[in-house]
Each structure stands twice: as structure tokens, then as C-alpha cells.
Design goal:
The complex is a heterodimer of chains A (621) and B (176).
Chain A: H1 11-20, E1 31-35, H2 38-42, H3 45-59, E2 66-70, E3 82-85, E4 89-91, H4 99-108, E5 118-119, E6 126-127, H5 134-137, H6 145-149, H7 155-160, H8 165-171, H9 176-186, H10 198-206, E7 214-219, H11 228-235, H12 237-251, E8 255-260, H13 265-280, E9 296-301, H14 311-318, E10 342-346, H15 347-359, H16 361-365, E11 375-382, E12 388-393, H17 398-405, E13 415-420, E14 426-429, H18 439-444, E15 453-458, H19 463-477, H20 483-500, H21 506-522, H22 526-530, H23 533-541, H24 543-551, E16 566-568, H25 578-582, E17 588-590, E18 596-598, H26 608-612, E19 618-620
Parallel strand pairs in A: 1-2, 7-8, 7-10, 8-9, 11-15
Antiparallel strand pairs in A: 1-3, 3-4, 5-6, 11-12, 13-14, 13-15, 16-19, 17-18
Helix pairs in contact in A: 3-4, 8-12, 8-15, 9-10, 9-12, 11-12, 11-13, 12-15, 19-20, 20-21, 21-23
Chain B: H1 8-19, H2 23-34, H3 39-49, H4 53-62, E1 74-79, H5 82-86, H6 89-100, E2 113-118, E3 130-132, E4 135-137, H7 142-157, E5 174-175
Parallel strand pairs in B: 1-2, 4-5
Antiparallel strand pairs in B: 1-3, 3-4
Helix pairs in contact in B: 1-2, 1-3, 6-7
Classes of the chains: A alpha/beta (621), B alpha/beta (176).
């Protein structure tokens, strides 16, 4: 049905094809969207899609129903997820065996399959329409909306949603200066972490002399617990390409590079396909749509190094060298890739650009705060009920994200902290939950926005242990160029490690604080400068937990192994002996009364016995 | 993962023609072909391009994706992202480590298994996560992880057919 890929020579041809595509993604057109993102695939979405296809071939030879395998639909907790149109019915934890019923109902348009619907935990009622589920209802999904509708492997889906209209508008009569003006007016800020104003970066680069300039898309999403950029690249890759094209036009570049993390093979494949299709249709290459503007994009795969998310390191890595950061200035806008002026922005930043051009800066800015326009995507994960991809306007309170959207803490436990900004971010306590997420507000509270990871921790998480975890991560990933980061992080790790092992003292806390400030002040790149954040933020908000470790040699969350022990509750022990059989340390033996006992001196606190015990008799103390 | 390796000369010609002198992409090609970076190939690459061996070694050890050692026939990767950490990834590693008697980064003496960690696989909703021969396992516990690895080891010991190779290496199917 889709027209063959034929190069567009002029904007009118694009318009004509777009007209022919009208209604293609209409909400009333019967179709199924199966989430094809990593999370859902892991839970069996591939098999489900195959089963649905098979049933459709049998029951719907006329092809009334359409199947789309999309990017991330957002609600990862419920994977594998299916959306059914019309109605936007949301099915959760769908199995291949459900395919028959789903297709039948969809063909007859008889409403949803009730047993697959989401049940609202507070009211106990089933909710049919995705948009009414609290997880989605409290969001403002502007960027992520496309993921519900678009087949990322088909450029015509993107065109049907008005894709490349922003490029047309720009080429059709906006000067580079006007494009920059829109970005400025929109208050678009870099979504990669530092929140630098995008227009300022572009302006710096545009005003540099020289004809050879570059646009780089930073897709080296290295923060653990963050997959926003992957979801955009896998769900709607053309939006990112279009944003890069507009950036290229605005600064006068002819070449773009996407530096993509090697751990994301699916994103590489999808983006590669998108670039090829864009090239075939004439959105990339020479004389784009007869405008005289030329721009092409290539993909460079990373090789796994956290520090390469830092822009100067990334540029070196893209050049095929060891990705070490360098001193700024000169900024990449002055001297970047191969020494040429380079604009480097994050995936999500580029994805916002077409939106601003299409809607106009003023409408775009209606969401967000005074200083930061638009929405931000977060990865809400950890000990929260509704893990998934969340998009909210800047300025949304943390509480709304964690509780209204996230549905609160798993298993009715108590909230302890939310960690924002990746490994070099900070942990924020309950009293900071009313903080609005914004670059300045988060920084003021001792954390950072980072790229948008948001990890929720409950009472069973030990913040000292988490701090040790982050320091260990940063020690591994420090490039080693600056002494203060290389050695400072290592020493901080030693001290915090000592505290988790019960060998810490109160003086250690003062030393730790002093050291953290030195690392912060004397490291060259953004990573080193923020490497102390986990230490400083936890010392600031969770000092009592540190004190319990050093004064009482007690880990309140019972995580630090040297500071708790396992015990068999005699009242609950049934004497089955499963625990002893599973214990690889040989620490469990049968007591005289037929009940089992754990020898704390031999036990290594691996916790396998807890899992093995059928009567929940093994507890921590 | 590694298909029939090409001759060293062929690999080098392809690497150099395709990538000029970008060390990173060259190493990616070499590793794609051999499954790791064999020293003799790196030396040949150095001779051919004039790039000093020390620079090649520097790059190879800087990036996590490169391995100077051959990996095991079965590759186990445990995610140690933040979410996996707070949901017990450490216990998984310990259980697998103890079962196979190797530490992360090591290969069993019979070259059957290698154990590695990765900073984040981005499927945090199913944390903790482990990948075995390209297949993802989510919502794991130490006991479950031990059971899964133990089963593959038994199959390997019984000389079961090369079950997973080719088919699922790189696919993302899994259990959660």
C-alpha cells in the first residue's frame, strides 16, 4: 500500500504523498500496536507478535486489521504490552496464547478483552483506555506519543504524522537566524545533563568562520537505569534525524554523526534503517528537496566507556581515539570534531527541535518552567510500583512522578530516597519530594538533572551501600586523566567501603566530606566535578544512616553484610532442611530440637536460604 | 557468536579499507571476527598501519567492549546497573561465581563459560537481569540464576548439541 521509495525532488511532492497517507495513523483505524522494545521483547513480545500475525492471516484475510510493532510504549512494568485501536485499549502481561482472543475482539470491534486490562490498585476497577490509567493520565506525552503509533522501520508512518514538516518549513523560508530565534524563544535546553541553552551552542557554532562544521548527536546513554534515548531512537528515529537536519541548517553544517552506544544493537539497526530510508527519499544527501541544502548523517558505534558521554571525550571517541575529555575552552562549538566547529546535543534535545518548529516556540513553551521549556522524559525505575518511561513538563514535583505516576513504593514499603541524575547525581529524601524537577532546583538540592534516570529506593535500600556502589562505578569509569578524580574517587570508595564493613569512624565522615569537595573543585570535566555528588548528597540528607554504621556498627536497612546476620525464627521453622541443603557455605545445621540454626561466623550472607525457606522463617537481625 | 574466523590478512585489509586509521572501529571489526582481540592480529594491524602497539593497547584496554582474552563458549552477563544493584544483582553474581568458580571477567578453565558484568541493559523493570548466550532472564534471585546456569552446564557436560549457537546469539528473547 505504501508508495515505493522514490526520491522527493521538491516540497510539493512530499505534501502530495503526505495527503495520500492521511488517515493512516488515525485513531479509529483498527490496529494493534505491540511494544517491540527490549523490555517487552525480553518478556516474550516477539513470540506474541508472531502469534498475532498468524491469527490475523487466518481470521482476517481481507486485512482489515493492521499490526504494528512499535518502540517502547512506556509502561514497562506491565510487559509485554499491547495497545488496541480504536479505543486505545491497554492490555498487559499478554501471552502468545491470548493472540486469538485479542484479534477476534478487535475484528468484531466488541470492546476490550476484559481479563487483559489493567486493574487500578486503589479502586480495584478495570481500566480499558490507556490514557485513563494513572500511570499515563498524569503524564504529558508529547515526544513519546509517537511511540504508540509509529512503526519505527517505516518512514511513511513518520510522514503520516507530519514528519519532516518542520524541515520543510525551515527550508521553505526560515533563515538560520530565525531557527535560532525559535530555539531561544522556546527555552530549549540540552537534555543530556548540563542543561546548556541549545540556541547558545548553535549560535556560537554558527558565527564561527569556516565552511566545514559538524552536528553530533550524543547517543552514548551510559547512565545505569536510564534508557530514554534508546526508546526515542528505537521508537521514533526520524524525529532525531529531523532535529539534526534542522541543526545542520541553522549552523551551516553538511555532516552529522550519531555516536551510539554499542550496548544498544537494536537501536543501531533501527537508526541505520531510518538513515537509509531518509536518504532514499531525499531528506538526506545533496540538494535536499531542491533547496540547495546538503546534509548527510553517519552512525559511529561506541565501544563502552561512560566518560564518552562527556562531549569532548565523545568527540575524541568518534574520531576513533581513546575517549578522554579535554580542557574547555575551546568549546566544541569553536573547535570540535577534527578541529572544526561542532554542535553536540543529546538525542532527546534533537527530538524536541521539530516539535518547536512545528508548534511554534510560544506554544511549545506553554509546558515547562520560566527557564526550561517543554517536557522531559524520565526513566522511573527501582522500588516503585510502576516502572517505565515517563514524560512530564519541567517543573513537575517529584512527588507527582513517584507517587501519582509511579504508584508509590512496591510492597507497601516506606519511601526512602529518589536518586536522580545517574551515578554522579544525588539521593533526595522524602522532605525534598515537593521539589520541582528543573535543572536549577535539582542542583540547588545537591543533585543534578542528568539525562533523566530516576531510581526510587525504599527502606530496604542502604544509602551508604548505594553510595559505595556509585563510587565503585565511577572508579571504574574515571578515565584517569585528572589526579583528583582518579585517586580521589578511589579513596572515597575505600572510606565508604570501610564504613559498610563496620570499620568506619566519625572522623571518616569529615574526611570524606573534605575529600569530596576537593574532587569536585579540582577535576577538569563534568564527570569528575559531579563524581562527589553521591557522597555529598547522602551525607547531607542521610547522615543519621552513616552515623548508625560508624557509631552503632548497625546497617538500618540490613544490607551491609558485616553489619547484620541471618537468624532462623524457631516459631516459624518447620524443620524441612531446605535451607541447609541450599547453603553453599555450610553454615546451617540441624539443632537438637530438629530445627535449624545458622552459624553467623560461617554464613556469608548470600541470602539463598531466605529464598529456599518455605515458611519465611529466616529473618535478618 | 564468532563464526568461522577470516584469515588475518583478509580481516586487516577489510578493516583498513573500510575505516582508514580509526583504531576503535578497526578493533570492533577484529573483535567481531574473532570474538576477542588476538595479540598476533593486533601486532599485524600495527605493522600494517604504522600505529604504535602501545596506542592500540591503550584503546583496547580503555573501552569495556574489548576483550584481550578469548571468551567462553557460553557467555553470561549480569547487569549491575543501579536498579539491578538495589534489587540484588550482587547476590546473583556471587551465586554464579561460586557455582562456576570464576570471578567476573574470567573464563572457566575448560573455556565453557565466561562471566561478565555490564553497567546497564536498560530493562530495569525486570531487575535483576542476567543474559546467557543472548537470552535475557529477568526478575531473578540467586537461586534461580544458579539453577539456570547449572542447567546449561549439565547440558554442556552431557555433550548436548550446540543448542543456542547461531539461533539466539543476539536475539533478545527471554524469560521474566
Amino acid at each position: 500500500m505504501a508508495p515505493a521509495l522514490k526520491r522527493f525532488a521538491a516540497p510539493e511532492e512530499v505534501m502530495k504523498v503526505r495527503q495520500s497517507l492521511e488517515g493512516r495513523l488515525d485513531g479509529n483505524r483498527p490496529r494493534l500496536a505491540i511494544c517491540g522494545d527490549t523490555g517487552c521483547t525480553v518478556c516474550g513480545a516477539d513470540g506474541l507478535a508472531a502469534a498475532v500475525k498468524e491469527v490475523m492471516e487466518r481470521k482476517d484475510p481481507a486485512g482489515r486489521l493492521e499490526l504494528k510493532v512499535t518502540g517502547c510504549l512506556g509502561f514497562c512494568e506491565q510487559a509485554p504490552v499491547v495497545l488496541v485501536f480504536p479505543g486505545a485499549y491497554f492490555y498487559r502481561k499478554v501471552k502468545a496464547a491470548d493472540a486469538e482472543e485479542i484479534v477476534e475482539k478487535a475484528l468484531l470491534q466488541e470492546g476490550p478483552v476484559a481479563r487483559l486490562l489493567y486493574t487500578d490498585p486503589s479502586s480495584g476497577k478495570k481500566i480499558a483506555c490507556a490514557g485513563e490509567i494513572p500511570f499515563y493520565r498524569h503524564q504529558e506525552r508529547v515526544l513519546l506519543d509517537a511511540n504508540w503509533h509509529v512503526n519505527p522501520l517505516d518512514i511513511y508512518d513518520y510522514l503520516a504524522r507530519g514528519g519532516y514538516a518542520a524541515l520543510l518549513k525551515v527550508l521553505g523560508g526560515m533563515s538560520p537566524g530565525e531557527v535560532l530565534g525559535e530555539m531561544k524563544e522556546a527555552r530549549l535546553r540540552g537534555r543530556g545533563g548540563a542543561g546548556f541553552y541549545t540556541w547558545l551552542k548553535w549560535e556560537l557554532c554558527r558565527t564561527r568562520a569556516g565552511s566545514k562544521k559538524y552536528v553530533i548527536c550524543n547517543a552514548d546513554e551510559g547512565d545505569p537505569g536510564a534508557f530514554m534515548d534508546r526508546s526515542l531512537l528505537e521508537g521514533n528515529p526520524h524525529a532525531v534525524l529531523e532535529g539534526m537536519l534542522i541543526a545542520g541548517y541553522a549552523i551551516g553544517a553538511v555532516e552529522g554523526i550519531v555516536y551510539l552506544r554499542t550496548e544498544y544493537p537494536t537501536a543501531v539497526a533501527k537508526l541505520d534503517q531510518a538513515v537509509r530510508q531518509a536518504r532514499e527519499l531525499g531528506f538526506l544527501g545533496e540538494d535536499i528537496l531542491g533547496s540547495g541544502f546538503a546534509f548527510d548523517i553517519s552512525i559511529v558505534r561506541g565501544a563502552g566507556a561512560f566518560v564518552c558521554g562527556e562531549e569532548t571525550a565523545l568527540i575524541r571517541a568518534a574520531e576513533g581515539k581513546v575517549g578522554e575529555p579535554r580542557q574547555k575552552p575551546p568549546f566544541p562549538a569553536e573547535s570540535g570534531y577534527r578541529g572544526r566547529p561542532t554542535v553536540i546535543n543529546n538525542v532527546e534535545t534533537f527530538a524536541n527541535v521539530p516539535l518547536i518548529v512545528n508548534r511554534g516556540a510560544v506554544a511549545y513553551r506553554a509546558a515547562g518552567t520560566e527557564n526550561s521549556g517543554g517536557t522531559k522524559i524520565f526513566c522511573l525505575v527501582g522500588k516503585v510500583n510502576n516502572s517505565g518511561l515517563v514524560e512530564v513538563p519541567f517543573g513537575t514535583p517529584l512527588r507527582k512522578i513517584v507517587f501519582d505516576i509511579g504508584g508509590g513504593i512496591k510492597g507497601g514499603k516506606r519511601f526512602k530516597a529518589v536518586q536522580t541524575g545517574g551515578p554522579s547525581g544525588g539521593c533526595l529524601p522524602e522532605e525534598k519530594l515537593d521539589l520541582r524537577v528543573d535543572f536549577e532546583d535539582l542542583a540547588g538540592a545537591g543533585s543534578i538533572m542528568g539525562s533523566g534516570g530516576m531510581i526510587v529506593m525504599d527502606e530496604d535500600t542502604c544509602v551508604v551501600d548505594v553510595t559505595r556502589y556509585f563510587l565503585n562505578f565511577l572508579k571504574d569509569e574515571s578515565c584517569g586523566k585528572c589526579f583528583s578524580c582518579r585517586v580521589g574517587v578511589d579513596r572515597m570508595l575505600e572510606i565508604v567501603g570501610g564504613i559498610t564493613e563496620g570499620a568506619g569512624s566519625e572522623e571518616d565522615l569529615a574526611l570524606l566530606e573534605e575529600l569530596a569537595l576537593v574532587v569536585k573543585d579540582t577535576s577538569m570535566c563534568g564527570l569528575g566535578q559531579t563524581a562527589a555528588n553521591p557522597v555529598l548528597s547522602t551525607l547531607r540528607y542521610f547522615r543519621s544512616e552513616y552515623l548508625a554504621h560508624v557509631r552503632e556498627k548497625r546497617c538500618p536497612a540490613k544490607v551491609c553484610r558485616a553489619l547484620f546476620r541471618y537468624r532462623v525464627d524457631e516459631d516459624l521453622c518447620s524443620g524441612c532442611g531446605f535451607c541447609a541443603r541450599e547453603c553453599s557455605a555450610g553454615a546451617i545445621g540441624e539443632g537438637p530440637d530438629g530445627l535449624y540454626l545458622i552459624d553467623p561466623a560461617v554464613c556469608n550472607r548470600c541470602g539463598v536460604c531466605v529464598e529456599a525457606c518455605a515458611s519465611d522463617a529466616i529473618t535478618k537481625e | 557468536m564468532c563464526k568461522r574466523p577470516l584469515e588475518v590478512e583478509d580481516v586487516l585489509t577489510r578493516v583498513i579499507v573500510a575505516n582508514g586509521a580509526s583504531v576503535v572501529t578497526a578493533l570492533q571489526e577484529i573483535q567481531n571476527n574473532y570474538g576477542y582481540l588476538p595479540e598476533e592480529v593486533l601486532r599485524a594491524f600495527s605493522r600494517k598501519t604504522g600505529i604504535p602497539m602501545v596506542d592500540i593497547f591503550n584503546t583496547a584496554t580503555f573501552y569495556n567492549a574489548f576483550s584481550l582474552e578469548p571468551r567462553g563458549r557460553h557467555q553470561i552477563t549480569v547487569c549491575v546497573g543501579t536498579t539491578c544493584h538495589i534489587r540484588g544483582a550482587g547476590m546473583l553474581i556471587e551465586a554464579v561465581s561460586r557455582l562456576l568458580e570464576i570471578q567476573p571477567g574470567e573464563v572457566t578453565p575448560d573455556r565453557e563459560f565466561s562471566l561478565e558484568t555490564v553497567n546497564c541493559l536498560g530493562c530495569c523493570a525486570f531487575a535483576p537481569v542476567m543474559v546467557l548466550d543472548g537470552k535475557y532472564y529477568g526478575n531473578l534471585t540467586a537461586g534461580k540464576a544458579r539453577e539456570i546456569v547449572g542447567r546449561i552446564r549439565e547440558e554442556a557436560a552431557e555433550g548436548a548439541p550446540e543448542a543456542d549457537e547461531g539461533e539466539s546469539g543476539g536475539s533478545r528473547e527471554g524469560v521474566c
